[in-house]
Structures are given as C-alpha cells and as structure tokens.
Write a structure and sequence with these properties.
Blueprint (H helix, E strand, L loop, with lengths): L1 H12 L18 H16 L12 H20 L3 H8 L13 H10 L1 H6 L10 E5 L2 E10 L2 E10 L7 E7 L36
Antiparallel strand pairs: 1-2, 2-3, 3-4
Length: about 210
C-alpha cells in the first residue's frame, strides 16, 4: 500500500520519472499499468491476512487448479509490467542501437558518472550543455570550455548502450572548430556540479569530433 501511494505521488509530482519498482528494469515513467499492478499486489497481500497455513496438496486436480491460478496471476502481472520488455532485452533480444530509445536525461546522467567527465570537467565553464544531437548509436553533448586562455568547446560522444556507455571527448576551438590539445592540469571549477534541470533542444552541430 505504501508503494501504491508512493507511485501515485511520483506520477503527480514527477510524471517523467521512472518508478524504480524493479531497479534498472524500470525505465518507463509511472503509468496506469504500473498503478494497477501496485493496487492488485497490495490487494493480494491484504487478502492473505487470516488465511490458514499452506498444506501439501495430495489431489492431482487440486494441484492443477492451483497451477492454473498461478499461471493466470503471472500472466496478469506480466501484462501490467512495462519492465517485461527490458527484461526480454537483457535475456537476449535487443533492438538495433540505431532505433533504441534513450532519454537525453539518461545520457547526461551516464556522462556525469563517467571517468571521462571527471578527467575533463576542469575546463568546462557551464553546468548545462549548449548543444546536443544524436547520430545513429551515439549522442553528442557540447559544453562551453576555456583552455589556455581561449574559448573552446568540449564535445562528448556517449554511446547509447543501456549500461556503462562508452564516452569519448574532444576539445575544439569555439570559433574555428579546430582540434585543441587538452591542458595538462585543467583548473577545477565549482560551477559544474551535476545539475540536470534543463536540456536544450538540439540546434545542430557547432563542432565536429
């Protein structure tokens, strides 16, 4: 029941946030299916109050009826579970990465957790990207930067893998797009703390990797 109320509150206050009901498998926002499943599970749990203890069935017919009921319950839960698709992907089925739907917020979160971000964030001068676009299996994120006294751009390429995406980065001149060398000891800045509150719309490439 607590989980049901939490799902209702999450849907009303943060409709675009996944519920996390099954950990990493829950990547879809809270929907009517998720709420219905939570209500049914809460009702099933309450229905067990006061029931006698389970006993081994000696009748084949009783066992068949119990097995049929269990199969029906599992089918209903599967139909109400958006996580089933992600589970099938992890079991072997996988759609082409060119067609894979990965939210931009997830890409930014993966980028902020990567080792490449920790190594290169010292030259970044803003907390939000100035450009972002997708090409096939990669999403490119551009941050303004400052290196050796000149304006630059840090261009991150993040693969659209569901787990531990590959991250590459290049530093380019903001005016000419020419490749620049990374400073040996980039200065750390405090204004680049992870804040994923605003995602600018893709406006096209301003630099090339």
């Amino acid at each position: 029941m607590v989980a049901t109320f939490a799902a209702v509150e999450l849907r009303s206050s943060h409709p675009a946030t996944e519920c996390g009901c099954f950990g990493d498998l829950s990547i879809a926002p809270v929907s009517a299916r998720t709420l219905t499943r939570s209500v049914l599970l809460a009702g099933a749990a309450m229905a067990t109050i006061g029931l006698p203890r389970l006993r081994l069935m000696h009748s084949g017919a009783a066992t068949a009826i119990a097995a049929s009921g269990l199969a029906l319950e599992l089918a209903v839960i599967a139909a109400l579970s958006p996580e089933l698709r992600e589970a099938l992907v992890r079991l072997g089925y996988s759609e082409p990465c060119e067609l894979r739907r990965v939210p931009a917020t997830r890409t930014l979160a993966a980028l902020r957790k990567s080792a490449m971000w920790r190594r290169r964030r010292g030259v970044i001068t803003a907390s939000a990207p100035v450009d972002m676009w997708r090409e096939l299996c990669w999403r490119y994120v551009v941050y303004p930067a400052r290196a050796d006294g000149r304006d630059a751009e840090a261009v991150f390429a993040v693969s659209l893998r569901p787990h531990r995406p590959v991250v590459h980065c290049a530093l380019v001149d903001a005016a000419t797009g020419a490749m620049l060398d990374w400073p040996t000891e980039p200065e750390r800045r405090d204004d680049t703390s992870p804040r994923l509150l605003r995602i600018p719309a893709a406006t096209g490439s301003s630099a090339a990797v």
